[in-house]
Design a protein that fits this description.
This protein has four helices and 23 strands. By secondary structure, the protein is mostly beta strands. A four-stranded antiparallel β-sheet has the order 4-5-6-7, with no helix packed on it. A four-stranded antiparallel β-sheet has the order 8-9-10-11, with no helix packed on it. The protein is globular. Residues 84-305 form the F-box associated beta-propeller type domain.
């Protein structure tokens, strides 16, 4: 019972107070089972970081009792946020050219060496958790020139174990393949490649595979999002309608989840139109709050307002950030 009660406390209270009560509580809190249980009890959300005109602001967007809550992020980030996993953040300090793995709940961070890229063409470092080995791994994708092609390479580092970077085999992949911004799910890292494939790294086995997008969608513009457990991609069918698909990480099979059709309710978005902007107005997927329940949308025009669409109740809500 004590275990279940402590697991519902905020991480900061556990770290600052509960862990000091007695040896029995200290030992219980430091077990893998407790950490896993506390992660499952924690509130999921979206970390939104703004770097504008030299000012840096961070917001945490979450759901509470069916309503969207926007709060200022309680940790001052040192630079750009590149990735997150289980509440840990990979942040790059632009001024010191340093890479940090940060636990913002207890305001602690550790520094790991940056991977020395052979060329300037690279993507950001990302982090994922391997449940089987109970280890975190930092991974970076980069490209090197091979004749007229740019060959994809992956480097990996197990946090607290490896003293140097290791390479993952990518020789079975086509030479002209590229990797874009990574998306992290449970035990996997995904890189959308061009418009036709998704590269997936199994963090435990360190094997990378290539999965084509559903047939007929190769030339469509797609937005990718992590649901936490799986990868989803969303397609704009029109200004106010979207199509949502999901890829299971283990089987790499695509399943159509739902359609979001807001054409009949487009008058609700009139206050977001920019009259001086001649570009088309589009709903842009931003992230999931409670997967298959609330989808956060931005718009293609400059605004501070975001949209929270509840797929189950079909309710449309609006919330505002501190910056465009």
């Amino acid at each position: 019972m004590v275990f279940e009660i402590i697991a519902r406390l905020p991480a900061e209270d556990i770290y600052n107070y509960a862990v000091l009560v007695c040896r029995k509580w200290y030992r219980a809190i430091h077990t893998r089972n407790f950490v896993y249980s506390h992660l499952r009890q924690s509130t999921p959300g979206l970390l939104v970081q703004t770097l504008c005109c030299g000012n840096s602001a961070s917001f945490f967007v979450s759901m509470s009792r069916g309503r969207v809550v926007v709060s200022e992020f309680g940790y001052e980030l040192r630079g750009g946020t590149w990735a997150s996993c289980n509440g840990l953040i990979v942040e790059f300090d632009y001024w010191k050219d340093a890479l940090h793995i940060t636990n913002p709940a207890i305001k602690q961070h550790s520094t790991i060496p940056l991977f020395s890229f052979p060329v300037a063409s690279h993507d950001c470092h990302c982090i994922a958790y391997s449940a089987a080995s109970m280890e975190y791994k930092v991974v970076v994708a980069y490209r090197i020139k091979d004749g007229n092609s740019r060959v994809l390479r992956l480097a990996i580092r197990t946090v607290g174990v490896d003293e140097s970077w290791r390479h993952v085999c990518t020789e079975h992949l086509p030479n002209d393949i590229e990797a874009n911004t990574p998306f992290i799910t449970e035990g996997f890292i995904h890189w959308p490649s061009r418009k036709t494939h998704v590269l997936t790294l199994n963090v435990e086995t360190e094997v990378i595979t290539e999965t084509p997008v559903p047939q007929g969608y190769e030339k469509r513009y797609k937005y990718y999002l992590s649901t936490g457990k799986s990868l989803s991609f969303i397609i704009n069918c029109s200004e106010f309608s979207l199509e949502v698909w999901e890829m299971k990480s283990e089987t790499r099979e695509w399943t159509k989840m739902c359609n979001v059709d807001l054409e009949a309710r487009k008058s609700k978005f009139e206050h977001l139109y920019c009259r001086n902007d001649s570009s088309p107005f589009m709903l842009v997927p931003g992230g999931w709050l409670n997967y298959q329940e609330v989808l956060v949308l931005c718009v293609s025009h400059k605004t501070r307002v975001c949209i929270a669409y509840n797929l189950r109740t079909q309710e449309i809500g609006f919330f505002e950030l501190g910056y465009d």
